[in-house]
Amino acid sequence: MVVIALSTSYAESGWYKYIFALLLGNSAAEYVLMRSMFKPLELFIGLRYTRAKRRNHFISFISVSSMLGIMLGVVALITVMSVMNGFHKEVRERILGMTSHASIIARDGALEEWQQVMQLSKGHQRVVGQAPFVEVQAMLTSGEKVNGAMLRGILEEHESKVSDVGMHMRVGELSQLEAGKFRIVLGRELANILNVVVGDKVTVVTPQVSVTVAGIMPRLKNFTVAGIFEVGMGEYDRGVGLVHLQDAAKLLRMGESVTGVRLKLDDLYLAPQVSHELASQLPGSYRVTDWTLQHRNFFRALSTEKRMMGLILFLIVAVAAFNIVSTLVMVVTDKQSDIAILRTLGASPKSIMAVFIVQGATIGFVGTMLGIIGGILLSLNLEVIVKGIEQLFSVDFLDPNIYYISDLPSDMQFGDVIAVSLTAFLITLLATIYPAWKASRVQPAEALRYE
């Protein structure tokens, strides 16, 4: 203790600090050296404790396991969120391939001046495509087979501007829907249910009725199957039939009217805003809806699922953070004599606390950075990796005969990467506070009593 006391008086004078370092040969002497050579001192000591070879190898093992735990947690979070983003994007595109970003519908169900509405909506800078449509719930029958479906009348030259159903035709073309020919294009599953192929007849029964000598009869009409489409969504492949706009209007006795006008926007996420603007600009009484309202519950469920999966996977990072707490508590216990000597040489409680915060933060930072690198690489190459594993083990993780989406899509968003990284590092930083505070409370006299 005499040597230590002398060191404080001579530490600032020339070569004496090197002599005391050689004499003492421990962190106390090094503190004398470092105080005059390194700024900030707490950062240097914290980093030195992190990289130094510890006497207690169990502490080193827990430190490494904590770092690996944080890394694995970040990798898992980035990868899973990227996969969920990919699935959401795929589902959204398939849904919007059959529906529209926004629709303008007459409140009484019959839009007579639809050409005028198309012209007015075309003036909006966000509208890039328009298509009139007639829509009604109907019953389709073929022999003894019966199934309900949405009957939609379209104009092929306009339909391609608002949907991509023409790109998903398995048999036939949308151009075969000609006025007066009474042809129909069915979803693949609907065609299978009705047991029909191209060229077969199906009977369309509508809710409208006709008064005949035999009494009140539902309106029905035979249509010829002209094509089959498959968009990969059961809701549409099993429940939609497409006919020509004039044929649908004639069947429903709508004359020149239509049900509404479908719109495609240059940015689908602006659909609510554009719908509100169009509703205020269009003359007359119209109802403007968008895809966020039509499928609100579905997309809300997907969003909730993503948040809950993220919360569950954050438990991996939390476990790793608890390991950091254990590591630092044992380091504090192991380094009590060194802490006491540093306090004797003038280190403040705040400095001691900062030393161990730096040590824990370093573990968290390295683990988070490794996780970011691993997560980005895995997310960007996930499809290739999954296909390689499937080929290697001759398995299908997503059987195309069962699932509509047979690939494993990945859509990594840097906003998610940043959020995951910051949250993971913040958790590890908070985990260092208690052990660092305990270290700052070490009493030199108590710690050096038996040294």
Describe, in short, the structure shown:
This protein is 55% helix and 18% strand. It is an alpha+beta fold and 451 residues long.
Mean pLDDT over all positions: 80
**Can you tell me the overall shape?**
elongated
N→C terminal distance = 10 Å
Q: Give the beta-strand count.
A: 10
| SSE order, one letter for each helix or strand | HHHHHEHEEHEEHEEHEHEHEHHHHHHHH
Work out the helicity level: 55-70%
Low-confidence stretches: 1-29, 31-38
* Spatial order of the strands forming the largest sheet: 2-3-8-5-7-6
The helix tally amounts to: 19
CA-atom Rg in angstroms: 35 Å
Secondary-structure content class: alpha+beta
Strand count, sense and barrel status of the largest sheet are: 6 strands, mixed, barrel
Beta-strand fraction estimate:
15-25%
Q: Count structural domains.
A: 2
- What's the assembly state of these chains? single chain
